[in-house]
Specification:
Elements: H1 11-15, H2 18-21, E1 28-29, E2 31-33, E3 40-42, E4 46-51, E5 54-66, E6 77-84, E7 93-96, E8 100-102, H3 105-131, E9 133-135, E10 141-143, H4 146-156, H5 171-187, H6 194-209, H7 222-235, H8 243-265, H9 272-284, H10 290-293, H11 304-319, H12 325-344, H13 346-349, H14 359-366
Antiparallel strand pairs: 1-5, 2-3, 4-5, 4-8, 5-6, 6-7, 9-10
Helix pairs in contact: 3-4, 4-8, 4-12, 5-11, 7-8, 11-12
Domain Chromo: 55-116
Biased composition (Basic and acidic residues): 163-182
Protein name: Chromatin modification-related protein EAF3
């Protein structure tokens, strides 16, 4: 992480490389002059990268020009494999140039502006939820504005990290952050049924050891499963707080989070080529109509196997958020009920036999 950033070329020097951008060859490059912005990028260059609604410091590990035949993320054209500073390699991902910025004064100013806007929005939501707190007939703490509280809860878990206050430095601050991080993760501890734990192990073994794949599109999809769960909550007797108001909001939040997290953190390496093929077929391919692709989300293609992976990762994700204790408690209750629903309906939700892909797929996925 101590590699010095590559020096960015100024407008006059980048203009001279315009013709070079049109002759970029397939394969990994050491430098790239963008064919659209004429900005030069280098391997090992530090940069800024959009991830969700925020911007993070990152480093360019590889540069490639993807074609429809060899794309790894469903995107065509120049792509950059980035590593986010301070995050594990599992967060490394291929991104298009639209998501990266130069690590300069203008980029840092934009990063700070987005962080401040997000902090202001978070503070406003928390204040609104706190102002509406009341007691229900059982004496259990609730809120007269549960929609705002639960929206804040789920949205807070949809980004990779919380927002650090600018200027916070030092070992003491790091210890405090770790304590809060661990506290949130403990507060969000889920009751995962043993049957689902077995399914998770079987799922991992099928993909990583046996090199098999979940059938896509799945039936039922994540969207359909969440809709079935909503009906279950409405028609069953549960201890969930204010289900008539909160259920739809929680489900919407989980669906949005799944759509954002699927390609970034819910796939094993052997599945990434399948993901690229799915994006090409339904979203980015030349035969896809724009009006059709805008309605396609991963929650309408993937199913219970990947939804379960997301649910068990929620404690870690929430630990990296700015979620307050009340919101964590709300999400925890609903997710635990969702896990029980998955256990009861496991035979109709989870795939028993995975698909064995062709040899050519296996060679591509492992290369």
């Amino acid at each position: 992480m101590s590699v010095e950033p590559g020096s960015a070329s100024d407008p006059s020097s980048s203009a001279a490389g315009t013709s070079k951008s049109s002759t970029v060859k397939k394969g990994t490059l050491t430098t790239l002059i963008s064919p659209t912005t004429h900005v030069q990028w280098r391997i090992n260059e530090k940069c800024l990268c959009y991830h969700g609604p925020l911007i993070y410091e990152a480093k360019i590990l590889k540069i490639r020009v993807f074609t429809p035949e060899d794309t790894e993320n469903g995107e065509i054209g120049p792509n950059f494999l980035v590593h986010y500073k301070g995050w594990k390699q599992t967060w490394d991902e291929w991104v298009t140039e639209q998501r990266i910025l130069k690590l300069d004064e203008a980029g840092i100013a934009k990063q700070k502006a987005l962080s401040q806007s997000a902090l202001a929005a978070q503070s406003a939501t928390t204040a609104a939820a706190a102002a509406g707190k009341a007691k229900d007939p059982t004496g259990k703490a609730s809120t007269s504005n549960p929609t705002a509280a639960s929206s804040s809860a789920v949205a807070g878990g949809s980004t990779r990290s919380g927002i650090r206050k600018e200027g916070a430095r030092g070992t003491k601050r790091a210890r405090e952050d770790d304590e809060v991080h661990n506290s949130r993760r403990a507060d969000m501890k889920l009751n995962i049924p043993e049957v689902l734990k077995v399914l998770l192990v079987d799922d991992w073994e099928a993909v990583t050891k046996n090199h098999q794949l979940v059938t896509l599109p799945r039936s039922p999809t994540v969207r359909q499963i969440l809709s079935q769960f909503e009906q279950h909550v409405k028609t069953s007797t549960t201890s969930l707080p204010t289900p008539g108001i909160l259920t739809r909001t929680i489900i919407n939040g989980l669906q949005i989070y799944f759509d954002r997290a699927c390609g970034m953190s819910l796939l094993y390496r052997f599945e990434r080529h399948q993901y690229a093929e799915i994006r090409k077929k339904y979203i980015t391919g030349p035969q896809v109509k724009i009006e059709e692709s805008s309605d396609v989300e991963m929650s309408s293609i993937y199913g219970g196997e990947h939804l379960l992976r997301m649910l068990v990762s929620l404690p870690q994700m929430i630990a990296n958020s700015q979620m307050d204790a009340e919101s964590i408690a709300l999400v925890k209750e609903y997710v635990n009920e969702l896990l029980r629903f998955l256990e009861i309906n496991k035979d109709s939700i989870f795939q028993r036999e995975y698909d064995t892909p062709s040899q050519s797929y296996g060679n591509t996925a492992r290369s």
